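Quick entry, no commentary yet.
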Amino acid sequence: MNCKTIAVLLTCHNRKDKTLKSLDSLFSQELSSDFSFVVYLVDDGSTDGTSEAIAKTYPQVKILQGNGNLFWNGGMRKAFTAALEVGHDYYLWLNDDTILYPHTLNTLLETHQQLSDRGQPRSIIAGSTQDPDTQEWTYGGYQQLGWWYPPFKCDPVFPTDTPQACDLICGNIALIPQDVTSIVGNLDPALTHYAGDWDYSLRAKQKGCSIWITSGYLGTCSRNPKPNPENTPVLQKALKNIEKPKGLALESVTLQPWEEWKLLMQRHGGIFWPIFWILPYRKLFWSVLFRRN
């Protein structure tokens, strides 16, 4: 019987220690002998010696170089492209700040097998993460609130003792079988940083795939700190900053680049997409209109 392969996809930028710890947890997996994995890692212009440290510690990792402007979606897309060209049975998204529990890969694979046995081989399976200190839920799956809400207005799906269906997943830990990539393909090149994983989830559902989280937690990952908000921004500066890959952080929302957010709302917002597109930006114009001198 041939050993099935998993392409593990990561992208990183200037956080060598975190990246190495994540790889440590990956190479410590209690993986069934029926499977093996190959790591495709994009180093997006790191200047802290990340590539050198990885090459020394894990020479089997396939390191791809970025130009420093790929961000999450661009970096993961580059790794995904390289892996798809080779061809694998599974593709695993892994954030480089995520620490896997030893059973993670086996749990993901067993969950996919269970779903396949139930007639759902085209299933994306994500793992939930928790804060390493508080043990609180940080990333995983989400359930949309309904067609009358913006498509990214969601509630988290907390893990239980059984797998659960959901609508969207975070890309921290996500297993994508070849049956899915054959019809959905890669991440969208029109997106830079934000929502590439959510967009992929919804595109997969539109093509008849299902989205799941496994039982229990599969790793730890601290929640990303919110960027410092720009309160009462000057309009010209604010409009310029919105077009940055990570958008513009206001007090309670991060505004995404206009065209990328428009694409996402057109694709997933239904008949109300123009309203959902404009809705997040109301806070910007409100703050400019009533800003203090």
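second:
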Amino acid sequence: MPFALHRAMPALGLLLGACSPITMFDGLVPKDGGARQVAKGLPYGEGPRQRLDVYAPAGVADAPRPVIVFFYGGSWNSGSRGGYGFVGRALAARGFVTVIPDYRLVPEVVYPGFVLDGASAVRWVRAHAKDYGGDGDRIVLAGHSAGAYIAAMLAVDDRWLGDDRKAVRGFAGLAGPYDFAPFTVGASIQAFGDWRAPAETQPVTWAGAGDPPALLLAGAEDRIVRPSNGDRLAAKLRAGGVPVEVKRYPGIGHIGILTAIAKPFRGKAPVVDDVAAFAERVTQE
């Protein structure tokens, strides 16, 4: 681990432990070569948080590349795409055009505002991916924590994407909350507590036949979003005949599964390898 990064780890732990924006982390960790940011702050809507960044593999491809849309976490009330360049470059270096959107947060919106923004971003990607070397008909939705929730809802519930959902070839969730009603934690109460039918807000309610294949990753030591969320979503998907792969990484917690994407921490869990292999497989089928 680089010396500067090692010295910064105590402050970094406080930053990440609070699920705050991880711009500091992103600025410290070395990035993958073979990838570049090709667009920054593109609007997919009219609001200041309806913007996205695009990363792409370096070099010219013979054909449009599959696309990964990655939604970051932050309890639906925090986060910024500016802290996730390490994710965008890591996935782009594996051959994917990678899009990282911002979305509106609590208290500006509550459910379903952030899901609606996610859907708008995916529609933008389907329409414009070709401008950045991507194939808008081969999209994998991915995310961490609250972002995995958004990705899951878009993947399993056709209320949001409608006909555009046919472009979604797979869903990869990292430490995602998929079955957490009734709401007992402050962040979920604030984001979902006013919805009269809590079951309607849960990915596990909508999952079933016809949904895209899923990769559900979790840290075995996650005490913030219990890995059993993934187990219950997997059971619903499998009951509908949907291919699902579930992996738990030993010794990894809620934040560790995200930071393992960064180059200095990949020895802790093969998150990048697993997501890239899954995305490659489902976009080639």
